[in-house]
């Protein structure tokens, strides 16, 4: 049976910065699922620049039959000053809609933007604290709506901060190497979610 993977969210979900479509997060996670023995069909409705407030439109546009959804959102909430309460509520609503369709959801909340090169060193601790607060709200909203959350941001932030090659030329989005690192961190969480779904169906 073919697993239908849906990818929603922002430029990280879309793959901005990757050298080719094969290097994007969705493509890499599709290969991880295939390597684990699943046949996979992937649909990407993510939009570069999207905030949590844009998720409702993406969910409405998405196919109804997705088995598992990867939802990556939060960075633009911070850069576009979406209030944490509004963002978390919108994220929770999107997860709720997907769960009502029977889709299992893995949420990847906001990354730690303190690792981005253009953040002045003096402000990095402040930015990291703000990202932690937003991520905490996102996590609570996603889990309350029945989604799973991948808590990978702190570990990934340290890796990105230490290696500029993980960023693309714009020094904001990941490079192909950066997406490889993120995909490696997310794959175990996605595989666990899929296995739980299969166990429940059995």
TrEMBL record:
The source's superkingdom equals Bacteria
The SGNH hydrolase-type esterase domain extends over: 7-181
Q: Which intervals of the chain form a coiled coil?
A: none
Citing just one GO molecular function, the answer is: phosphatidylcholine lysophospholipase activity
What is the protein name given in its UniProt record? Lysophospholipase L1-like esterase
């Amino acid at each position: 049976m073919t697993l239908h993977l849906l990818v929603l969210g922002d430029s990280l979900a879309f793959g901005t910065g990757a050298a080719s479509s094969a290097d994007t997060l969705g493509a890499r996670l599709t290969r991880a699922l295939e390597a684990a023995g699943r046949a996979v069909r992937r649909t990407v409705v993510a939009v570069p620049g999207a905030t949590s407030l844009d998720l409702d439109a993406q969910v409405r546009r998405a196919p109804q039959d997705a088995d598992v959804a990867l939802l990556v959102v939060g960075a633009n909430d911070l850069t576009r000053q979406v209030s944490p309460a509004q963002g978390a509520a919108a994220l929770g609503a999107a997860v709720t809609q997907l769960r009502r369709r029977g889709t299992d959801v893995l949420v990847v909340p906001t990354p730690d933007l303190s690792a981005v090169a253009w953040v002045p060193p003096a402000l990095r601790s402040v930015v990291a604290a703000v990202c932690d607060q937003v991520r905490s709200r996102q996590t609570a909203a996603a889990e309350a709506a029945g989604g799973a959350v991948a808590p990978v941001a702190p570990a990934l932030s340290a890796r990105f901060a230490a290696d500029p090659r993980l960023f693309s030329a714009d020094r904001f989005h990941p490079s192909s190497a950066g997406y490889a690192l993120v995909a490696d961190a997310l794959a175990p969480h996605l595989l666990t979610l899929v296995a739980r779904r299969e166990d429940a169906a059995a």
